[in-house]
Amino acid sequence: MRIHRLPSSLASQIAAGEVIERPASVVKELVENSLDAGARHIEIRVEKGGVKRIQVRDDGHGIHPEDLPLALSRYATSKISTLEDLASVRSLGFRGEALPSIVAVSDLRLISRQDGGHAWCIDGQDGKPYPVSHPPGTCVEVRDLFYNMPPRRRFLRRERTEFLHLEATVRRLALSRHDVAFVLHHNGRLVHRFPAESREKRIARLLGHALMEQAIRVERQGETMGLAGWISPPVYSRSQRDMQYFFVNGRAVRDKTLHHAVRHAYRDVLFRGRHPALVLYLELPPQEVDMNAHPSKLEVRFRKADEVRRFVAESLEEALSGTSPGKGPPPRLAPEVREPGDTYALASQAAMPPLGYALAQLHGIYILAENAEGLVLVDMHAAHERIIYERMKAAWERGEVAPKTLAVPVAVDVSEGEAQRVEEEASRLRRLGLDLTRIGPETVLVRGAPAWLEEEAVPHLVRDVLADLIHADHSSRIEEQWHALLASRACRHAVRARRHLSLGEMNALLREMEATERSSQCNHGRPTWTQVSLQDLDRFFRRGR
Ligand SMILES: Nc1ncnc2c1ncn2[C@@H]1O[C@H](COP(=O)(O)OP(=O)(O)OP(=O)(O)O)[C@@H](O)[C@H]1O
Ligand SMILES: [Mg+2]
Q: Whose CA is nearest to atom 7 of ligand 1?
């Protein structure tokens, strides 16, 4: 094919795809425009997860009637004029792309009224403003997202999933501006109503009061940078990174530098695979950060990333220094695993079980056993952990985890969204071994839990499972998370190092290892046993046979 120009409508659809990925992106762009316009009150109404209709209405300063057609055209903005402006941008928008992008992929209508003026309306398709009646501020209505792009539309998920994305976006925006009131309706039902309030109250409302009661405050002012926010103590860790919110100069971002800083700060107070909850606000001179790294502005580039990482990590370490470290299994050197290869068996020992019989316990850590090939060394904690894990997993797979009724039901504080999930997913939760009832806006009552779980661990598990449910679309993901949870439980139930075992107990453990699948590695991937053959020993002692 020869080169030809794409029709302009197709070109703008392609470009729009970079900014507008799903209903949540529309909400993000519209609300950011409202915030840039100085709105104090923003009302979001969506239908069918936002695919059918999204309406965002604000009480901001509005758009001059003569500028309305410009507002919908590409590269038209009131926010910057020069390259210098771009370098020091303070507003959320600056590319002049959001509204035209939405126009390219939906049916859009915008009404705006400035103080003292009249309200005017403009349709995305024909672009000629006409007078209407409307209070001061701006209202944008977006219908039938991607109606003209069937491939994109097919990529949209179920209504519920799209709404979850959209709601998560609203939560991030609400966390970024606690001084602005937000209202969110879905299918005519009120989902959130946040009045303008203090930052602390807003965070507690969104992340749950239970977290905020334990959270550690972070506040540090450097020469050029400042960091404020709240982080969870290590005991309040989560199985997901779902409760980590970063804001850079008021904008919600996803950023590796900041994640690294967090991981570093928590490195020896948290188990691997566990994540803290946190909300952090970083302020730095706009020249130090490039917000224009990506059309969605979710990624940023720091001019001095190392400096930012160090500053954030140090701030968190300082805040955490008051807490005592959690006790994980101490890191051990993994011995080299040997294949029991060309070894010889003595005829008299042919009937011996693969791992042989226990001889002794070494320093309360290793079991020494004799088998046909020679010497067997077993890390007893790691091996036991694996056995318990596999046993629990098997029980779960057989659907045998009926909740065991607790002697005293436990009330657990969760976030509002999680409590709602409990109502909707009660039967699924029962299959996971949890009998939960919502008894308040942010409280659920646990009546039953898996029998193998100690009661003190119940609130923790409930929070983890709810977080998983909210974030997982597929049950396989829940299963994965469930396995991870089982693994950490197994670790806690396994025999501790230094516990004295009798020969009988050691032999029982060896037999169980033989009967358990995948028992050659523990849950952290370390080997649980190794073989030192007679040949190895002969070689060592230079003993010819
Ligand atoms: N809710 C609103 N209130 C007042 N003015 C608005 C509102 N929404 C849009 N505008 C005006 O329309 C212009 C275009 O909006 P648009 O979102 O397309 O671009 P932008 O915000 O300047 O940049 P970006 O593409 O980065 O969002 C804005 O610069 C602003 O002047
Ligand atoms: Mg914008």
A: 33
